Amino acid sequence: MTETRDEAMMPADLGQRFEAAWNAHDMDAFGRLFHADATFVNRFGTYWRGVDQIVAGHAAIHASIYSDSTLEIDAPDVDPISDDVAILHFWSRLNAGAAHPAGPHPVDTLIMAVATRRAGEWRIQALENVTLVNPRTGETILRR
């Protein structure tokens, strides 16, 4: 039996694929990271249920304020729960560009994702993204 690209992929590969889809502003590739019934909480607390809502929410910002943004994602910590479930934690640095109303600036976030394998394919089932801030002042901080 020959493995397809997705079947050979491991949960840790999702971070690299997330970064590549974001940086290419490729919402089709971005959507393929998620199961159809996935959930996503963005760094502002917006909750999307289903890949169609996830892609629509991201397509809007990639067509406007993040149209010239880039994303750098660190290798994730992977905690296997079973053969078909893993929890991933990974740091990301969003580099907003001139299209953002606040102008070019970096933002660090920590992403937690639950990845599941269905029919041999690893995708994200649930993801939450939080911005790194000073808890006393609310000021955004960078980790490095």
TrEMBL record:
Alphabetical list of InterPro entries matching this protein: DUF4440 (IPR027843), NTF2-like_dom_sf (IPR032710), Steroid_delta5-4_isomerase (IPR011944)
Transmembrane segments annotated in the record for this chain: none
Residue ranges annotated for the DUF4440 domain, each copy included: 14-124
Protein name: DUF4440 domain-containing protein
Organism: Rhizorhabdus histidinilytica
